[in-house]
Amino acid sequence: MKVQLGVVGAGYISRFHFRAYQKNSTDVRIVADLNEEAARAAAAPFNAAVASDWQAVIDNPDVNTVVILSPSSTHATVVRAALEAGKHVICEKTLSLSASESFALGKLAEEKGLLLFTSYMKRFFPAVQIAKSILPRLGFITSVYCRTYQGVGRADLYTGEIIHPWLTEADGTSRITKLSGGGILVCGGSHIFDLLLYLVGKPAGVYAHQLLREESDVDMVTHAMFDYDNDCTAHFEGNWHPHDRIGYQRDGWDEGFEINGTGGRLLLNTPLWNGSEHLSPQLRFYNAEDGTWTDYGTVPVCPFEEAEKYFCEQIVKQEQGDYDRYVGYRVDQLLESTQLSATENMRIPIPWQDV
Q: How many domains does the chain have?
């Protein structure tokens, strides 16, 4: 089949997806956004129709695949409508704001024989694929340290003035939480959790702690310790920070993994997400058997382009592939359990649903 896209959302994140569609010569039939001028600008290179109501995308008979790039708080409603209308779905992360909702969406897609992709594009760095292939050489994995340190300029969110989107509004909820479901845990941790699941697998339980200001419901820092049934432990930290010269590129972005095993150590650092087509991740492997380090060089790619190319190719083939319908659910389950642990100040067993 030929992929014919209808896109919901023309905000900031959409530009990376639209660039991918242009590069990959993907057929975009309609773009919808509440800001019709933004939709019009995004649609112009494709000579696509424009709408201010997302339902127009669902109802368009030329569309066989719906791409959802609107805020996370809207995802579940639009994904469900698209699936009920018999359309395949590509959705920006997170799939929804609820693990149970995300699981139900995966089930709905499966029952209807439709493809559902939650777009965690960092899997598509060549360095991540190489890291995955190296993992068996680590032997028994004893520990994982993963982090996402994301700069917010030189704003001091811990003791200084809080930026408006972080402040709670009259109803007691901040704008960030309303749109995205949380702070650094959701906004940055979701990508790290997807890579943790992809590289190491599903943990059994989590104990978490968060740093929040009294006047905000947004986590500025989240720590989590995940335990595995095989006695491996994974440590996570998400941190919105004011340091503009940290990270392997010295650009304030410090995100990556250290995975330790009986056979060696794997180091993976990923570049700033919105300019990654110009930078390659850093990947190193220590082989305990002969005491050598190997550095892996990869060609810079735009992971958005690689992800969208893969999703569209799978839709053409009518095959879900190894990027299954429950990728979004698994990340949302980790996010939800981590948040619950931090709120309850106790270890939480992770209630994985069978898929």
A: 2
